[in-house]
Design a protein that fits this description.
Elements lengths: L9 H53 L8 E4 L3 E5 L5 E7 L2 E4 L2 E4 L8 E6 L14 E10 L2 E10 L5
Antiparallel strand pairs: 1-2, 2-3, 3-4, 4-5, 6-7, 7-8
């Protein structure tokens, strides 16, 4: 800049633009990476929260089974029973949804192994005989763009012998 003249020369302005462009170009990948990480964490948090909520709801209701005599269907993909209050409840997977009596309890279930039930007798042996069921192992697997997340919970029937 010449003495006595106010302002910047064209060359000085171009240099500032070039320097700012270089700085922005070098920081852009860092900012993009941070934004991708934030998105990943938020999506992962959402799928974990949905898995926990659905597992809590299923486990709470399975605990309300009066006894193994109240179970009407017990397969690896469907659990149907009457709770201690006589309410008919059916848990099953339809597509990517976990259904409770036909209403969506959770979505984004893994298409092949989103919901599964395993049944144990009083000696902790696997059983397919409804009258021998003393506990139910519930597995919920949800997935999204970040991957899949599984939760498993063993629920003891409240009034089973």
């Amino acid at each position: 800049m010449k003495k006595g003249n106010a302002g910047f020369t064209f060359v000085e302005i171009i240099l500032v633009i070039v320097v700012v462009g270089i700085l922005a170009g070098s920081l852009a990948p860092l900012l993009a990476s941070a934004a991708d990480s934030w998105t990943f964490v938020m999506e992962r948090r959402d799928v974990i929260a949905e898995a926990r909520t659905s597992m809590f709801k299923v486990a709470r209701e399975v605990r309300q089974i009066g006894g193994s005599g109240d179970i009407t269907v017990a397969t690896s993909g469907v659990l149907e029973f009457n709770d201690a209050h006589g309410t008919h409840i059916r848990f099953e997977q339809s597509g990517g949804n976990l259904l409770r009596n036909g209403y969506v309890l959770a979505s984004n279930l893994d298409s092949t192994a989103g919901l599964s039930f395993a049944y144990r007798d009083g000696n902790n042996n696997t059983t397919s005989n409804i009258i021998d069921i003393r506990s139910v192992i519930v597995t919920v697997t949800l997935q999204n763009s970040t991957g899949s997340f599984s939760l498993q919970n063993r629920v003891w029937l409240r009034n089973a012998g």
